[in-house]
Amino acid sequence: xxxxxxxxxxxxxxxxxxxxxxxxxxxxxxxxxxxxxxxxxxxxxxxxxxxxxxxxxxxxxxxxxxxxxxxxxxxxxxxxxxxxxxxxxxxxxxxxxxxxxxxxxxxxxxxxxxxxxxxxxxxxxxxxxxxxxxxxxxxxxxxxxxxxxxxxxxxxxxxxxxxxxxxxxxxx
Length: 172
What we know:
Layout: H1 4-25, H2 29-49, H3 53-78, H4 92-113, H5 115-119, H6 131-139, H7 143-167
Helix pairs in contact: 1-2, 2-3, 3-7
């Protein structure tokens, strides 16, 4: 049955897929970043469709806002368009294709093996997606991934600064 909600889901889902492919296939780093912003905003629309407005707002503010500003800053600071485009390692594209194939096979096997477990997931309640409950889960059960993410982002910023300093010949 074609409802407005289903049509919206299909349209936004296609935008998510197209923007992800645009990000991956774009040769211009600035366009890739802009495709990623569109992807993050489209995913936020899917979260709204799922009835999770807090996660949608967090998606827009944290990812489409803060992290993408960081990406744009790094791309513009490093001048990614001026970087060399030749392969440093022979056959790295074939190796990447093999790794992608292995990951897709693994994901398919996991879906086949665990397909019964997906139907046993408990129904999400309305109070599950409140900011208080999400905060409690984030800072209790998921505190290690939360802290690791912050460390990875910090390392990325420091790495961008170090790469920029070396490129200009100033050193650290």
